[in-house]
Write a structure and sequence with these properties.
395 residues; alpha/beta; Rossmann fold; 2 domains; seven-stranded parallel sheet; six-stranded parallel sheet; 15 helices
């Protein structure tokens, strides 16, 4: 089957990296390779983007989803909550089953958090399933069960890097035809108007493109700002795009502020560095943030110096500062700064090096864009995804 009809299920609706990555793939997809329709769980700007591409897109808020978390107690909570909410999705599931059997050749689950929905649908249709594996959940009985369920349910998998593929192998999911297809980058900076809230001055502007989460290390930006202030360098502006409400069980002063319903801005204020931050809140067009900044920093507490924000930053000729061991995208003094482990002092040293050497900043940015144009080429990677669907349809 050269042109399969594919239904793509998206849990984020443009509010996260997996949704934006799917959109980029479909925007580059040749109409002769696949006929695609998208169902999103959340409404957002992504629907208008699909309309501009001529791709049908619907919003279905009752789409059930759940994924494994690091701690046993949190897994009990999220899975119990998912099962309690499951009956409310009955009408959606009935519609999905009917439409799939009537109009489609393949269902593509755009995130592993849809694994229970795939399990339910498997006994109600004979058409093949494909899935995008986009994260590395903490090893646990829950994530291993998630891996086994996907193994029994899904016909083909796409991994966004080699890291996800090798990690899921340790959980017991090692599909014979699992493909690694890097995410496609977004628009180039010359095509994008900078975010109007970002001042046009000589300060080095360091962007962050994620909501607050302890595991993502967003609070570490305040530690770095405090260390810079201690060196009498307040000419750095940290531009934070995302929801900065403090959530979860947090240590020390962060935990105290979290219980008071505070956000990261209040934490920066208590540390005396609020003037070094610009909090933009949720931004529907993060490429405009990158266009107004000089560098992206990814300060995750996990070893994952890759992802939607990294690819979009490099594509926009913005070097990336991160820590970890995977250098396919971020490579020290080639496309950015990659530290083996997180270190406030080392990060401060490198931020100041970039702030004081704009020629180095430009060289790293140009090399990063060239690397992304090669690894994350839109036409080539969309062709790869279409080949996965065509192969699944033939089988």
């Amino acid at each position: 089957m050269n042109r399969p009809r594919v239904l793509c299920l998206d849990i984020e609706g443009g509010h996260g990296g997996s949704s934006r990555s799917l959109y980029q793939s479909l925007a580059y997809l040749s109409k002769s390779d696949a006929e695609v329709e998208v169902w999103c769980r959340r409404a957002g700007v992504i629907q208008s983007l699909y309309a501009g591409c001529g791709i049908p897109c619907s919003v279905v808020p009752s789409m059930p989803h759940v994924s494994s978390l690091p701690r046993f107690s949190r897994n009990l909570y999220v899975y119990t909550r998912a099962f309690l909410k499951y009956p409310a999705s009955r009408a959606f599931r009935g519609k999905l089953s009917a439409v799939v059997n009537e109009r489609f050749d393949i269902v593509h689950f755009n995130h592993e958090a849809l694994f229970l929905l795939a399990r339910w649908l498997r006994s109600r249709t004979q058409i093949p399933f494909t899935i995008h594996i986009r994260t590395c959940p903490a090893p646990s009985a829950f994530s291993r069960w998630q891996a086994r369920t996907i193994k029994r349910t899904v016909d083909s998998a796409v991994f966004i890097t080699e890291n996800e593929k090798s990690f899921w192998q340790t959980l017991g999911y090692d599909p014979d035809d699992g493909r690694v297809i890097y995410n496609i980058a977004g628009a180039s900076p010359e095509d994008v108007e900078p975010h109007s809230g970002i001042p046009n001055d000589r300060r080095l502007k360091v962007a962050s493109l994620c909501n607050f989460a302890w595991i993502r290390g967003v609070d570490r930006f305040v530690d770095i700002a405090a260390a810079l202030a201690a060196r009498r360098r307040r000419d750095i502006l940290f531009v934070m795009a995302g929801d900065m409400r403090l959530r979860g069980s947090l240590p020390g002063e962060l935990g105290t502020l979290s219980r008071q319903g505070a956000d990261l801005k209040e934490y920066a204020t208590t540390r005396g560095v609020a003037d070094m931050f610009l909090f933009l809140g949720h931004v529907s067009e993060p490429e405009r943030v990158l266009a107004g900044c000089d560098v992206l920093a990814r300060l995750s507490r996990e070893d994952n110096p890759w992802g939607r924000d990294v690819i979009e930053a490099l594509s926009a000729a913005r070097p990336v500062i991160a820590s970890g061991g995977y250098d396919r995208f971020v490579e020290t003094d080639k496309t950015g700064i990659l530290l083996p482990t997180f270190s406030v002092d080392a990060l401060v040293d490198n931020i100041l090096r970039l702030a004081d050497d704009r020629a180095l900043l430009d060289r790293l940015g140009a090399a990063g864009r060239a690397r992304i144009e090669n690894l994350c080429n839109g036409t080539a990677r969309a062709k790869d995804l279409a080949a996965v669907w065509q192969s699944a349809a033939r089988k």
